[in-house]
Structures are given as structure tokens and as C-alpha cells.
Amino acid sequence: MKRVQHKIILGVLAAVFCVAAIHNADATSVKKMTVANLIKYGDKIIAGRVTAISDGFDSKNIPYTDITVAVSESLKGNVNGNYTFRQFGLVQPRQINGRTYLGVSPDGFPRFKKNEDVVLFLFKKTSLGFQSSAGLMQGKFTVTGRTLTNDVNNFGLFKDITVNQSQLTPDEKKMLTVESGPLDNELFKGFVRKAVQQNWFN
Questions:
Q1: Cα–Cα distances in Å, from 39 out to 185, 196, 200?
Q2: On the chain, which terminus has fewer CB atoms closer than 10 Å, C or N?
């Protein structure tokens, strides 16, 4: 019993350091992010469907959730097939030796559902193997029909964005005036694709 409790304590301590590592990966990771920030700091940008979600404890007893996405399009980072990334924290609390362990992903981290369609802007993996979305819940977009939104309703996504207007289509120019609310999925992805290919924000 003491050994198990000791492992859990070590896991909690490691988790604290893990969260610090994730939040310190870039100072803007917990601040408001525009689409320019998401594109700049996203090591991988993918579109696809969530096919599997599982959680547990790694070899250091740090709680994690693995999310697997069947990639339909790679906008940055040359990702093909199924891509699995590891987010800090469990999906939900679990019972360990009669006690409830509450090591779920902290507030602000995106939540995932199996079979949902997403567009993800992902930071580089940390030294511990964890990978969060850029801006946390800001970097995970859920696709519904022909539109997509992140967990802050796309608020401020295009605020103070500077782009050469001659490089934009009329629909893209109109999109950049949107302050919040759902966006056309294909239009948004096309803008991101163009920005990555032409290196607008790096």
C-alpha cells in the first residue's frame, strides 16, 4: 500500500513539472492566440477524425491521454495516416485502491470525443513526450457540417492580423473581418494552407 501511495505521490510531483513544461514551452501558449500565432507556433497542423482515445499512467506515473487522429489533410508537418499525440492528464477521475484519483487534464486543455472531426494546431512534443495544442483549447477546432469553431468560439482569431491584401481572395478578406463565431471549414483551411506555404507569419 505504501509503495502504491509513494508512486502516486511521485506521479503527482512529476505531473506538476510536466504542466510547467507544457505551459513554459512558449510564453504565448496560455495567452490569447490569433491565427498567425497558431500557424507560427504549430509544429504540426492537421485535419482529420478522432478515432481513438485512451488514458493511463506512463513509466514515470504521470497521467496521460492518448488521442489518435486519422489524418485527412496535413497543412503543416507532413503527417500521414494515423497520428497519435499524448496530452497531459486522464480523461476522467478513476478509482485507485479505493480512493478517487483526480489527475484529469486541467481546465483550459481541449477535450476530445471519438468520431469528431477536428483541425489541430500542435506544439512540438516536450522532452516528456507530451504534446498540447497551441494555445491549448484555442488550437483545437471542431468541425460541424461545413463550419468549424474552437473552444473560445474563434474569438479574436483575426485581431490585428497583417496580410498583403493582394494575396487574399474576396472571401478570405471577408473572413479576416470576423470577430467571433463559426467559420467556413474549407475557406479557413485554405487560408492556413496558403499562409504556411508562403511563410506569411514566420
A1: 16, 7, 9
A2: N
